[in-house]
Protein backbone atom coordinates (compact mmCIF):
# COMPACT_ATOMS: atom_id res chain seq x y z
CA UNK A 1 0.00 0.00 0.00
CA UNK A 2 1.44 3.28 -1.08
CA UNK A 3 1.93 5.99 1.51
CA UNK A 4 -0.26 9.06 0.99
CA UNK A 5 1.50 11.86 -0.77
CA UNK A 6 1.95 15.02 1.19
CA UNK A 7 0.60 18.19 -0.29
CA UNK A 8 3.23 20.53 -1.75
CA UNK A 9 4.25 23.21 0.67
CA UNK A 10 3.05 26.65 -0.29
CA UNK A 11 5.69 29.25 -0.91
CA UNK A 12 5.22 32.60 0.73
CA UNK A 13 5.69 35.68 -1.35
CA UNK A 14 8.16 37.87 0.52
CA UNK A 15 9.18 40.40 -2.15
CA UNK A 16 7.74 43.79 -1.23
CA UNK A 17 9.65 45.83 -3.83
CA UNK A 18 7.81 47.39 -6.73
CA UNK A 19 8.96 46.50 -10.28
CA UNK A 20 11.45 48.90 -11.85
CA UNK A 21 9.19 49.61 -14.80
CA UNK A 22 6.50 50.82 -12.42
CA UNK A 23 8.96 52.89 -10.39
CA UNK A 24 10.27 54.60 -13.52
CA UNK A 25 6.83 55.36 -14.89
CA UNK A 26 6.05 59.10 -14.69
CA UNK A 27 2.37 58.35 -13.97
CA UNK A 28 3.18 56.60 -10.69
CA UNK A 29 6.32 58.50 -9.68
CA UNK A 30 4.77 60.25 -6.65
CA UNK A 31 3.03 57.16 -5.27
CA UNK A 32 6.05 54.96 -5.91
CA UNK A 33 8.30 57.40 -4.07
CA UNK A 34 5.96 57.42 -1.06
CA UNK A 35 6.01 53.61 -0.96
CA UNK A 36 9.80 53.51 -1.21
CA UNK A 37 10.04 56.05 1.62
CA UNK A 38 7.87 53.80 3.78
CA UNK A 39 10.10 50.80 3.02
CA UNK A 40 13.19 52.81 3.89
CA UNK A 41 11.61 53.96 7.14
CA UNK A 42 10.71 50.36 7.97
CA UNK A 43 14.30 49.23 7.34
CA UNK A 44 15.67 51.98 9.54
CA UNK A 45 13.18 51.17 12.30
CA UNK A 46 14.04 47.46 12.14
CA UNK A 47 17.75 48.27 12.29
CA UNK A 48 17.27 50.64 15.25
CA UNK A 49 15.16 48.11 17.16
CA UNK A 50 17.70 45.35 16.53
CA UNK A 51 20.56 47.58 17.67
CA UNK A 52 18.68 48.60 20.82
CA UNK A 53 17.83 44.99 21.57
CA UNK A 54 21.51 44.07 21.34
CA UNK A 55 22.43 47.00 23.59
CA UNK A 56 19.85 45.93 26.16
CA UNK A 57 21.11 42.34 26.08
CA UNK A 58 24.65 43.60 26.64
CA UNK A 59 23.51 45.86 29.49
CA UNK A 60 21.71 42.96 31.18
CA UNK A 61 24.96 40.98 31.22
CA UNK A 62 26.82 43.83 32.94
CA UNK A 63 26.37 45.27 36.42
CA UNK A 64 23.93 48.17 36.66
CA UNK A 65 25.01 49.80 39.95
CA UNK A 66 22.54 51.52 42.19
CA UNK A 67 22.79 52.80 45.76
CA UNK A 68 20.45 51.28 48.33
CA UNK A 69 20.09 51.75 52.07
CA UNK A 70 20.84 48.80 54.33
CA UNK A 71 19.27 49.13 57.78
CA UNK A 72 21.05 47.11 60.46
CA UNK A 73 19.28 46.22 63.71
CA UNK A 74 20.98 45.11 66.93
CA UNK A 75 18.99 43.96 69.94
CA UNK A 76 19.38 41.61 72.89
CA UNK A 77 17.43 39.51 75.31
CA UNK A 78 18.40 38.20 78.74
CA UNK A 79 17.53 35.16 80.84
CA UNK A 80 18.26 33.93 84.36
CA UNK A 81 19.22 37.40 85.55
CA UNK A 82 18.76 38.31 89.25
CA UNK A 83 16.17 40.98 88.49
CA UNK A 84 14.14 38.41 86.54
CA UNK A 85 14.09 36.07 89.55
CA UNK A 86 12.91 38.79 91.86
CA UNK A 87 16.06 38.91 94.04
CA UNK A 88 18.78 41.45 94.51
CA UNK A 89 21.80 39.11 94.64
CA UNK A 90 22.82 35.97 92.83
CA UNK A 91 24.27 34.19 95.90
CA UNK A 92 21.14 33.60 97.97
CA UNK A 93 20.90 30.14 99.44
CA UNK A 94 17.31 29.70 98.39
CA UNK A 95 18.22 29.86 94.72
CA UNK A 96 20.76 27.10 94.70
CA UNK A 97 18.15 24.53 93.81
CA UNK A 98 16.88 26.55 90.86
CA UNK A 99 20.13 26.39 88.90
CA UNK A 100 20.43 23.52 86.41
CA UNK A 101 23.92 23.40 84.86
CA UNK A 102 22.83 20.82 82.26
CA UNK A 103 19.97 22.82 80.78
CA UNK A 104 21.29 26.27 81.71
CA UNK A 105 18.15 27.13 83.60
CA UNK A 106 18.74 29.70 86.29
CA UNK A 107 22.20 30.65 84.95
CA UNK A 108 22.46 34.33 83.99
CA UNK A 109 22.83 34.63 80.20
CA UNK A 110 22.02 36.91 77.30
CA UNK A 111 21.51 36.68 73.52
CA UNK A 112 22.66 39.23 70.94
CA UNK A 113 20.68 39.51 67.71
CA UNK A 114 22.09 41.19 64.58
CA UNK A 115 19.77 41.63 61.60
CA UNK A 116 19.67 43.66 58.44
CA UNK A 117 17.39 44.39 55.50
CA UNK A 118 17.25 46.69 52.52
CA UNK A 119 14.80 49.57 52.71
CA UNK A 120 12.17 49.60 49.99
CA UNK A 121 12.49 52.07 47.15
CA UNK A 122 9.89 54.84 47.60
CA UNK A 123 7.10 55.07 45.00
CA UNK A 124 8.15 51.80 43.37
CA UNK A 125 5.58 50.06 41.21
CA UNK A 126 4.30 46.74 42.46
CA UNK A 127 5.35 44.90 39.29
CA UNK A 128 8.92 46.22 39.64
CA UNK A 129 9.36 44.85 43.16
CA UNK A 130 11.73 41.92 43.57
CA UNK A 131 11.98 39.44 46.46
CA UNK A 132 13.95 40.92 49.39
CA UNK A 133 17.53 39.79 49.73
CA UNK A 134 18.81 38.01 52.80
CA UNK A 135 21.16 39.83 55.14
CA UNK A 136 24.02 37.40 54.52
CA UNK A 137 23.94 38.13 50.78
CA UNK A 138 24.77 41.77 51.54
CA UNK A 139 27.90 41.17 53.63
CA UNK A 140 31.09 39.23 52.99
CA UNK A 141 32.40 39.02 56.52
CA UNK A 142 31.30 39.93 60.05
CA UNK A 143 33.26 40.07 63.28
CA UNK A 144 31.78 40.66 66.74
CA UNK A 145 34.09 41.60 69.61
CA UNK A 146 33.06 41.49 73.29
CA UNK A 147 34.84 43.57 75.89
CA UNK A 148 34.88 40.96 78.72
CA UNK A 149 37.39 39.41 81.09
CA UNK A 150 38.65 36.17 79.57
CA UNK A 151 39.40 34.81 83.05
CA UNK A 152 35.73 35.03 84.02
CA UNK A 153 34.24 34.18 80.65
CA UNK A 154 36.41 31.70 78.73
CA UNK A 155 33.82 31.19 75.97
CA UNK A 156 35.69 33.56 73.66
CA UNK A 157 35.38 37.26 73.07
CA UNK A 158 35.54 37.20 69.26
CA UNK A 159 32.93 35.69 66.97
CA UNK A 160 33.70 35.72 63.23
CA UNK A 161 31.52 34.79 60.26
CA UNK A 162 32.88 34.44 56.73
CA UNK A 163 30.57 33.74 53.84
CA UNK A 164 31.18 30.51 51.95
CA UNK A 165 29.89 29.18 48.63
CA UNK A 166 27.55 26.56 50.12
CA UNK A 167 26.27 28.44 53.16
CA UNK A 168 22.58 29.01 53.69
CA UNK A 169 21.24 32.54 53.38
CA UNK A 170 20.13 34.08 56.67
CA UNK A 171 18.23 37.17 57.78
CA UNK A 172 20.46 37.63 60.83
CA UNK A 173 22.67 36.11 63.53
CA UNK A 174 22.09 35.25 67.17
CA UNK A 175 25.01 34.98 69.62
CA UNK A 176 24.43 33.52 73.10
CA UNK A 177 26.73 34.03 76.07
CA UNK A 178 26.60 33.57 79.84
CA UNK A 179 27.05 36.52 82.16
CA UNK A 180 25.35 39.21 84.14
CA UNK A 181 27.79 42.09 83.73
CA UNK A 182 27.39 44.99 81.27
CA UNK A 183 29.35 44.34 78.06
CA UNK A 184 30.54 46.68 75.36
CA UNK A 185 30.26 45.17 71.88
CA UNK A 186 31.88 46.17 68.61
CA UNK A 187 30.51 44.84 65.31
CA UNK A 188 32.65 45.00 62.14
CA UNK A 189 30.89 44.44 58.82
CA UNK A 190 32.50 44.03 55.39
CA UNK A 191 29.81 44.82 52.84
CA UNK A 192 29.27 43.07 49.53
CA UNK A 193 29.45 45.93 47.02
CA UNK A 194 28.63 45.61 43.33
CA UNK A 195 30.87 46.58 41.70
CA UNK A 196 33.47 45.92 44.37
CA UNK A 197 34.74 49.05 46.10
CA UNK A 198 38.33 49.72 47.15
CA UNK A 199 39.92 52.22 49.46
CA UNK A 200 42.04 54.60 47.42
CA UNK A 201 45.45 55.34 48.85
CA UNK A 202 45.65 58.99 49.97
CA UNK A 203 48.60 59.60 47.63
CA UNK A 204 46.30 58.99 44.66
CA UNK A 205 43.00 59.81 46.36
CA UNK A 206 44.06 63.37 47.15
CA UNK A 207 44.77 63.98 43.45
CA UNK A 208 41.48 62.55 42.22
CA UNK A 209 39.33 63.56 45.19
CA UNK A 210 38.36 59.96 45.91
CA UNK A 211 38.24 57.97 49.13
CA UNK A 212 36.47 54.79 48.04
CA UNK A 213 35.65 53.79 44.50
CA UNK A 214 35.52 50.79 42.18
CA UNK A 215 38.51 49.91 40.04
CA UNK A 216 36.73 51.07 36.90
CA UNK A 217 35.72 54.32 38.61
CA UNK A 218 39.32 55.07 39.65
CA UNK A 219 40.63 54.44 36.13
CA UNK A 220 37.89 56.66 34.71
CA UNK A 221 38.81 59.39 37.22
CA UNK A 222 42.47 59.18 36.15
CA UNK A 223 41.45 59.49 32.51
CA UNK A 224 39.24 62.50 33.30
CA UNK A 225 42.18 64.11 35.10
CA UNK A 226 44.40 63.48 32.06
CA UNK A 227 41.89 65.11 29.73
CA UNK A 228 41.26 68.02 32.10
CA UNK A 229 44.97 68.74 32.47
CA UNK A 230 45.64 68.14 28.74
CA UNK A 231 48.29 65.51 29.47
CA UNK A 232 47.68 63.37 26.36
CA UNK A 233 50.52 63.46 23.85
CA UNK A 234 49.75 65.54 20.76
CA UNK A 235 51.36 63.11 18.31
CA UNK A 236 50.85 59.68 19.83
CA UNK A 237 47.46 59.73 21.55
CA UNK A 238 48.25 56.50 23.38
CA UNK A 239 50.94 58.23 25.44
CA UNK A 240 50.12 60.13 28.65
CA UNK A 241 52.59 62.68 29.97
CA UNK A 242 52.67 62.82 33.75
CA UNK A 243 52.59 66.15 35.55
CA UNK A 244 54.09 66.87 38.96
CA UNK A 245 51.20 65.13 40.73
CA UNK A 246 51.06 61.97 38.60
CA UNK A 247 54.80 61.50 38.24
CA UNK A 248 55.14 59.77 41.66
CA UNK A 249 52.16 57.59 40.80
CA UNK A 250 53.38 56.50 37.35
CA UNK A 251 57.06 56.42 38.27
CA UNK A 252 57.98 57.93 34.88
CA UNK A 253 57.48 61.04 32.79
CA UNK A 254 55.42 59.21 30.16
CA UNK A 255 53.28 56.12 30.22
CA UNK A 256 51.07 54.25 27.75
CA UNK A 257 47.37 54.40 28.45
CA UNK A 258 47.06 50.61 28.67
CA UNK A 259 49.57 50.66 31.55
CA UNK A 260 47.40 52.91 33.73
CA UNK A 261 45.29 50.06 35.24
CA UNK A 262 48.45 48.29 36.38
CA UNK A 263 49.73 51.45 38.09
CA UNK A 264 46.34 52.20 39.63
CA UNK A 265 46.04 48.70 41.18
CA UNK A 266 49.00 49.44 43.42
CA UNK A 267 47.03 52.19 45.15
CA UNK A 268 43.85 50.21 45.75
CA UNK A 269 43.37 48.67 49.19
CA UNK A 270 40.59 46.73 50.89
CA UNK A 271 37.83 49.07 52.09
CA UNK A 272 37.40 49.92 55.74
CA UNK A 273 34.72 47.86 57.50
CA UNK A 274 31.55 49.31 58.92
CA UNK A 275 32.02 49.59 62.71
CA UNK A 276 29.00 49.57 65.01
CA UNK A 277 29.17 49.99 68.81
CA UNK A 278 26.56 48.54 71.13
CA UNK A 279 26.32 48.28 74.90
CA UNK A 280 24.52 45.29 76.41
CA UNK A 281 23.42 45.69 80.01
CA UNK A 282 21.84 42.51 81.47
CA UNK A 283 21.05 44.22 84.79
CA UNK A 284 18.15 46.13 83.25
CA UNK A 285 15.29 45.09 80.98
CA UNK A 286 16.21 45.19 77.24
CA UNK A 287 14.96 48.14 75.20
CA UNK A 288 11.59 47.68 73.53
CA UNK A 289 12.96 48.75 70.14
CA UNK A 290 16.28 47.58 68.64
CA UNK A 291 19.10 49.97 67.85
CA UNK A 292 19.31 50.75 64.12
CA UNK A 293 21.96 52.06 61.71
CA UNK A 294 21.56 52.98 58.03
CA UNK A 295 24.42 52.12 55.70
CA UNK A 296 24.61 52.85 51.97
CA UNK A 297 25.53 49.90 49.81
CA UNK A 298 26.03 49.60 46.05
CA UNK A 299 24.09 46.77 44.44
CA UNK A 300 23.22 45.48 41.02
CA UNK A 301 19.92 47.08 40.05
CA UNK A 302 17.81 43.97 39.62
CA UNK A 303 14.60 46.02 39.21
CA UNK A 304 16.08 47.91 36.27
CA UNK A 305 17.27 44.68 34.68
CA UNK A 306 13.82 43.17 35.16
CA UNK A 307 12.26 46.14 33.33
CA UNK A 308 14.83 45.87 30.55
CA UNK A 309 14.19 42.16 30.22
CA UNK A 310 10.45 42.78 30.17
CA UNK A 311 10.90 45.42 27.44
CA UNK A 312 12.68 42.85 25.28
CA UNK A 313 9.90 40.28 25.70
CA UNK A 314 6.89 42.60 25.67
CA UNK A 315 6.15 41.84 22.01
CA UNK A 316 3.63 39.03 22.35
CA UNK A 317 3.27 36.11 19.98
CA UNK A 318 -0.06 37.50 18.79
CA UNK A 319 1.59 40.76 17.77
CA UNK A 320 4.31 38.88 15.88
CA UNK A 321 1.71 36.81 14.03
CA UNK A 322 -0.25 39.94 13.15
CA UNK A 323 2.87 41.65 11.81
CA UNK A 324 3.76 38.57 9.77
CA UNK A 325 0.23 38.50 8.36
CA UNK A 326 0.48 42.17 7.35
CA UNK A 327 3.84 41.53 5.64
CA UNK A 328 2.28 38.68 3.66
CA UNK A 329 -0.64 40.87 2.62
CA UNK A 330 1.71 43.63 1.47
CA UNK A 331 3.74 41.14 -0.57
CA UNK A 332 0.55 39.77 -2.18
CA UNK A 333 -0.64 43.29 -3.06
CA UNK A 334 2.73 44.08 -4.61
CA UNK A 335 2.53 40.89 -6.67
CA UNK A 336 -1.01 41.76 -7.79
CA UNK A 337 0.18 45.24 -8.69
CA UNK A 338 3.02 43.77 -10.71
CA UNK A 339 0.64 41.46 -12.59
CA UNK A 340 -1.73 44.35 -13.26
CA UNK A 341 1.17 46.44 -14.56
CA UNK A 342 2.17 43.65 -16.98
CA UNK A 343 -1.40 43.37 -18.28
CA UNK A 344 -1.64 47.14 -18.62
CA UNK A 345 1.60 47.31 -20.59
CA UNK A 346 0.45 44.45 -22.81
CA UNK A 347 -2.94 46.02 -23.56
CA UNK A 348 -1.56 49.53 -24.00
CA UNK A 349 0.92 48.31 -26.59
CA UNK A 350 -1.98 46.65 -28.40
CA UNK A 351 -4.13 49.81 -28.21
CA UNK A 352 -1.37 52.11 -29.49
CA UNK A 353 -0.62 50.12 -32.67
CA UNK A 354 -2.69 46.94 -33.08
CA UNK A 355 -1.20 45.95 -36.43
CA UNK A 356 2.44 46.26 -35.33
CA UNK A 357 1.66 44.65 -31.99
CA UNK A 358 0.06 41.57 -33.63
CA UNK A 359 2.88 41.30 -36.15
CA UNK A 360 5.53 41.47 -33.44
CA UNK A 361 3.62 39.11 -31.19
CA UNK A 362 3.16 36.53 -33.99
CA UNK A 363 6.87 36.74 -34.83
CA UNK A 364 7.71 36.14 -31.20
CA UNK A 365 5.33 33.20 -30.95
CA UNK A 366 6.74 31.78 -34.19
CA UNK A 367 10.26 31.86 -32.78
CA UNK A 368 9.06 30.22 -29.58
CA UNK A 369 7.29 27.50 -31.60
CA UNK A 370 10.39 26.84 -33.67
CA UNK A 371 12.44 26.52 -30.48
CA UNK A 372 9.93 24.06 -29.01
CA UNK A 373 9.62 21.93 -32.15
CA UNK A 374 13.32 22.07 -33.00
CA UNK A 375 12.53 23.03 -36.60
CA UNK A 376 13.62 25.92 -38.77
CA UNK A 377 15.24 26.91 -42.05
CA UNK A 378 18.56 25.32 -41.09
CA UNK A 379 17.34 21.71 -40.72
CA UNK A 380 17.32 21.32 -37.00
CA UNK A 381 19.32 24.45 -36.22
CA UNK A 382 16.64 26.92 -35.13
CA UNK A 383 16.73 30.61 -35.78
CA UNK A 384 17.20 31.17 -32.05
CA UNK A 385 20.31 29.03 -32.00
CA UNK A 386 21.76 30.94 -34.92
CA UNK A 387 20.84 34.28 -33.40
CA UNK A 388 22.49 33.42 -30.10
CA UNK A 389 25.81 34.05 -31.76
CA UNK A 390 24.96 37.70 -32.46
CA UNK A 391 24.64 40.27 -29.64
CA UNK A 392 22.24 42.41 -31.68
CA UNK A 393 19.71 39.64 -31.33
CA UNK A 394 19.26 40.40 -27.66
CA UNK A 395 18.65 44.11 -28.24
CA UNK A 396 15.52 43.59 -30.33
CA UNK A 397 12.10 44.71 -28.89
CA UNK A 398 10.83 41.14 -28.58
CA UNK A 399 13.32 40.38 -25.80
CA UNK A 400 11.67 42.70 -23.30
CA UNK A 401 8.24 41.42 -24.27
CA UNK A 402 9.29 37.78 -23.88
CA UNK A 403 10.79 38.44 -20.47
CA UNK A 404 7.63 40.24 -19.36
CA UNK A 405 5.39 37.39 -20.55
CA UNK A 406 7.59 34.77 -18.88
CA UNK A 407 7.74 36.74 -15.65
CA UNK A 408 3.95 37.12 -15.73
CA UNK A 409 3.46 33.39 -16.14
CA UNK A 410 5.85 32.70 -13.26
CA UNK A 411 4.10 35.16 -10.96
CA UNK A 412 0.69 33.78 -11.95
CA UNK A 413 1.82 30.26 -11.15
CA UNK A 414 3.20 31.41 -7.79
CA UNK A 415 -0.07 33.18 -6.99
CA UNK A 416 -1.91 29.95 -7.71
CA UNK A 417 0.29 28.09 -5.23
CA UNK A 418 -0.37 30.67 -2.51
Low-confidence stretches: 7-13, 88-97, 378-382
- What is the CA-based Rg, rounded? 42 Å
Helix content: 25-40%
For the terminal residues, how far apart are their CA atoms? Answer: 31 Å
Mean of the pLDDT scores?
A: 81
Spatially, the strands of the biggest sheet line up as 5-2-1-13
Backbone shape: elongated
Which second-level CATH architecture of the largest domain applies? Sandwich
Count, helices: 12
Overall structural class, as computed from helix and strand content, comes to alpha+beta
- What's the number of structural domains? 3
Largest sheet: 4 strands, antiparallel
Q: What fold name goes in the CATH topology slot of the largest domain?
A: Immunoglobulin-like
Q: Strand content of the residues, in percent?
A: 15-25%
Number of E strands = 13
Q: In CATH's first tier, which class of the largest domain applies? A: Mainly Beta
- Helix and strand pattern: HHEHEEEEEEHEHEHEHEEEHHHHH
What this model shows, in words?
This protein has helices spanning 20-23, 29-61, 82-85, 202-208, 215-228, 247-250, 260-265, 302-313, 317-352, 354-373, 383-387, 397-417; strands at residues 65-79, 109-118, 139-147, 158-162, 172-178, 183-191, 197-200, 212-214, 239-241, 254-256, 268-269, 274-280, 291-300. The longest helix is centred in the last third of the chain and has 36 residues, at 317-352. The two termini are 31 Å apart. It contains twelve helices and 13 strands. With 418 residues, the protein is α+β, with helices and mostly antiparallel strands. It folds into three domains: 20-51 and 315-417, no CATH class; 65-86 and 104-193 and 271-300, Immunoglobulin-like; 197-269, Orthogonal Bundle (MDM2), CATH 1.10.245.10. Strands 5-2-1-13 form a four-stranded antiparallel β-sheet, with no helix packed on it.
Amino acid sequence: MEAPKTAPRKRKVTDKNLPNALLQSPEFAADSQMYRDLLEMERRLDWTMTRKRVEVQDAIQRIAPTTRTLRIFISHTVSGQPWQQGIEGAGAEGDAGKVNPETGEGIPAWSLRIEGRLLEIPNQRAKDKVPPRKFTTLIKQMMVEFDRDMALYPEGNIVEWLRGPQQAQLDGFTIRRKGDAPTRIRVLLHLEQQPELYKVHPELGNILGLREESRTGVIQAVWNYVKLQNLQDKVDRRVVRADAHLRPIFGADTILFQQIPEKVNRYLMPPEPIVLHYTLNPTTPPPEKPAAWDVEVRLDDSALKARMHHAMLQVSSETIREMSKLDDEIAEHVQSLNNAHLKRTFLRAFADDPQMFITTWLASQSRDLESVLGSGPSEGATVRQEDLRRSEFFRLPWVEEAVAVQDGLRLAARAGMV
